């Protein structure tokens, strides 16, 4: 009978230990990190032509190929929660050595970063740290 009592005590102790582990491991969800609405823009001077863009949220990269014309605006893109760095790279060809390329990163409706270059073969990168 003593063995049964000892087994019951061990089983009861394990049940209490298991219950404590479940209770303490199921703590409240950690607060989610905020997302941000991002818009990218690029404008090349008259006579120039945009050729492509690459944007990234930390290490997640998206290429936009075969851009045409002198202006491009991305749709509103939700940056994943916890994103630390947003990057935009744009390539274009100008019609003269004084052609310009201007790129902008908007975060939550406000311009966060702007970059402008000039030349006939245009490429620039803008980075914004959240």
Can you tell me about this structure?
The chain has 130 residues and is of the alpha+beta class. It has a single domain (36-129), classed as Sandwich (Immunoglobulin-like), CATH 2.60.40. Helix content is 18%, strand content 50%. The chain is built from one helix and nine strands; from the N terminus they run H-E-E-E-E-E-E-E-E-E. Strands 1, 4, 5, 7 and 8 form a five-stranded antiparallel sheet that branches. The protein has a four-stranded antiparallel sheet with strand order 3-2-6-9, with no helix packed on it. Strand 2 and strand 3 form a beta hairpin. The longest helix has 24 residues, at 2-25. The protein is rod-shaped.
Q: What is the H-and-E element order?
A: HEEEEEEEEE
What structural class results from the helix and strand content?
Answer: alpha+beta
Major β-sheet annotation: 5 strands, antiparallel
How much helicity do the residues have? 10-25%
CATH topology: Immunoglobulin-like
Q: Which CATH-level-2 architecture?
A: Sandwich
Ends distance: 67 Å
The mean pLDDT is: 86
Number of helices: 1
CATH class value: Mainly Beta
Net shape: rod-shaped
Using only CA atoms, what is the Rg?
27 Å
Total number of beta strands: 9
- By oligomeric state, this entry counts as single chain
Contiguous low-pLDDT stretches (5 residues minimum) are none
| Number of structural domains | 1
Beta-strand content: over 45%
